[in-house]
Amino acid sequence: MVMNTDESDWKCIDTLRTLSIDMVQRAHSGHPGTPLGAAPTAYCLWQRFLRYDPFDPDWPNRDRFVLSAGHACPLLYSLLYLCQIKAGAPTSINKERRAVEMEDLLNFRQMGSRCTGHPEYGWTAGVETTTGPLGQGAATSVGMAIAQRWLAETYNRPSYDLFDHNIYALCSDGDMMEGIASEAASLAGHLKLSNLCWVYDSNHITIEGSTALAFTEDVALRFAAYGWNVKELRDANDLGKLTEAYQAFLDTQDRPTLIIVQSHIGYGSPNRQDTREAHGEPLGADEVRLTKQFLGCDPDAAFNIPDGVKEHFAAQFGQRGKQAHAGWMQMFTDYKARYPDLAGQIEHILQRKVPQDWQTGLAVFPADAKGLSTRDSSGKVLNAIAARIPWLMGGAADLSPSTKTDLESSRPNGFQHPGGAQGGTYRGRNLHFGLREHAMCAVGNGMSLSGLRPYVSSFLIFTDYGRAALRLGAMMRLPVIGIWTHDSIGLGEDGPTHQPIEQLASFRAMPGMLVMRPGDANEVVQAWKVIMQLNDAPFCLVLSRQATPTLDRSKYGGAEGLAQGAYIVADADRGEPEVILLTSGTELALCIEAYELLAAQGVKARVVSMPCWELFETQSRSYRDSVLPPRIRARVAVEQASAFGWERYTGIEGSILGMQSFGVSAPGKSVERHFGFEPQHIVQTAKEQIEHQRLNSQLDKGA
Ligand SMILES: Cc1ncc(C[n+]2csc(CCOP(=O)(O)OP(=O)(O)O)c2C)c(N)n1
Where is this region: Disordered (predicted)? Predict the structure, then answer.
């Protein structure tokens, strides 16, 4: 075997390999193949290039390494272990613990182990983002690259390159096939993100067999067409060529880089005949022995760490990162003295805090029977808040004039490559994601992982296109704000393809996601207040296209009640209500009309606005019972969306005016009438409920 590097390198690489196959073998679960084939690629990057301090995996200017092929995580865990990455910054309570201990490797995929089935952000230090669904990591890395560029343009000053890190993502065939990665690569190419390097371990095999079955395009040409710098390596074991390729990435200043490494699943190269294959399942004890023999390792030693391996990593990877970090700390100390305001902003970003004065200038909307759409009121509130929080930024998937998400201050072109024809700048805060909803949602995650407060936006219906990324954001508890407008059949003419039905229910079913559907302009203000104060959860802020009245809050309950998730907006004049109307969004106005009609007929009703079920569920029992007293069983829920889930609040005997079908194409008012969303219908249903529950209680008494 011809190797143009020293023995220590290969000892380290083979230890990464043997650890990985031992983990999978012991767990009887996982994918050993890619760690074998991609070990030299990852090793070369970590050992020779990555700027990363093992003593502080949270150092803000570290290079990011994203394992987009999350199923290859034994490789990442082996790296974290051998590089002795600490579990957190030295100040953290976990001071002495390492990100991954031997015990974790031994318990790969078992309960409590830091070596989870796929890498999980927030659980294992050194994992930059949760990956597993292929394509997500790659797309998320584009968000990190955008964030780096924005931070650099905004905060770097002459002699103070506070933010000059690079973003690497290790990708597989599957990543290259997934649409989300294509969307993200196209965007990265457009933005000329030269701080971004994807490394494609092209091993020509997926679960069902050879990529020849389903994937025969020329990836290099595709990426060249996206505007990337593409490097191709024929031999995954050639550390010299790998080094040259990474260096070429560092030397490229005008576009992102894709390094395609032709590898063979297992550990061989196309030049070697004696390679072994493995995909999707443990090798088996015999095969593990043979593999170790082939590598020249002791076939009977499991989880063996040869002498000198950790030291070799420490001497290069560790030393380089430690020095870079120490230099940075000194630089930041000087910077703080010179630019205290900017340094203060950076500290807020790193701690995910909002500035003290962030609520200054927030509007109070006067009562107005005609009102305005909640997308419009949201646009005004967003602009007011963004004026106080420079790192609140985002955009839409080509719909910002509709979703009202443009920041006036960042017009006309927002975040763009500074040399581009559009005349934008990397300091811009309006992102133009183009028609790429899925990548947009992943990019939002990446920006958030880098400390920014991003929002992403489109019509509510198109969250379906971004769902997998939104789900990961919820799993990672990232405070990304989704601004989703055109929130119901009330959007009208665009018809059933654009009218969301099941989206609200599906997000309410998603753990960790907070769904907020405010009912008028002042609820919108309160919604933004809640959103900006929570820094560990994503929101779906669900807004209307059509105008809705701004309620007279001197007559009805104050909108601050929204902070409890649900609150009483209108109530029986005297005594207990006979019926409760529960609602969210624009249907609040319908319920208020129905309430007034009922009152005129002597029927005592209560209207409960429920913009956020999740927040309501966190309230005390006594608060929840005060809003929805268990003894009042006559209940009507009104929401222009799937009825699914409302039984929780109406009870099975209650009524739900919701949607049981897709919508129809017609003007909004006609569509609403067609499906019974009218005050008169609510009144009738409320009366029927009262009668129904009266009969029920008579029956109860009779029994
Ligand atoms: C979106 C998504 N679909 C399916 C899977 C299940 N899956 C895990 S690995 C894999 C095959 C991956 O092949 P490749 O990307 O070439 O990785 P490698 O062969 O290098 O392990 C599949 C289909 C997944 N993780 N994510």
Answer: 400-425
Report the alpha-carbon angle 436-441-443, nearest 5: 90
Peptide bond into 412 cis (omega under 30): yes
pTM for the structure as a whole: 0.96
Stretch (H or E) spanning 22? helix 7-27
Cis ω for the linkage preceding 500 (within 30 of 0): no
Which residues does the annotation mark as catalytic?
437
Is 699 annotated as ligand-binding?
A: no
- The pair of structure tokens assigned to 259 is 């390094």
pLDDT tens figures, 602-634: 999 999 999 999 999 999 999 999 999 999 999
Annotated binding residue 535: no
Q: Hey, what CATH topology would domain 368-549 get? A: Rossmann fold (3.40.50)
> Per the structure block, which two tokens stand in for 195?
């701080």
Angle at 356 between CA 455 and CA 147, to 5 degrees: 35
**3-class DSSP assignment, residue 478:** coil
In the reported structure, the alpha carbon of residue 565 is separated from the centroid of ligand 1 by a whole-number distance in angstroms of 40
CATH annotation of 10-326:
3.40.50.970
Query: Does the CB atom of residue 173 touch ligand 1 within 6 A?
Result: yes
* CA–centroid distance, residue 279 to ligand 1 (Å): 10
**Distance between CA atoms of residues 214 and 538, nearest Å:** 36
Cα separation, 17 vs 39, in Å, equals 6
Q: What stretch of H or E contains 324?
A: helix 319-338
pLDDT (tens digit, 9 = 90+) per residue, 222-256?
A: 999 999 999 999 999 999 999 999 999 999 999 99
Atom of ligand 1 nearest to the CA of 171: 15
- CATH 3.40.50.920 domain span(s) along the chain: 563-702
- Name the amino acid, one letter, at 345: Q
Q: In whole angstroms, what is the distance from residue 177 CA to residue 181 CA? A: 8
CA 91, chain centre distance (Å)? 27
Where does the chain hold its CATH 3.40.50.970 domain(s)?
A: 10-326, 368-549
Q: Is 132 in the pocket of ligand 1 (CB under 6 A)?
A: yes
- 563-702 classified as CATH 3.40.50.920: yes
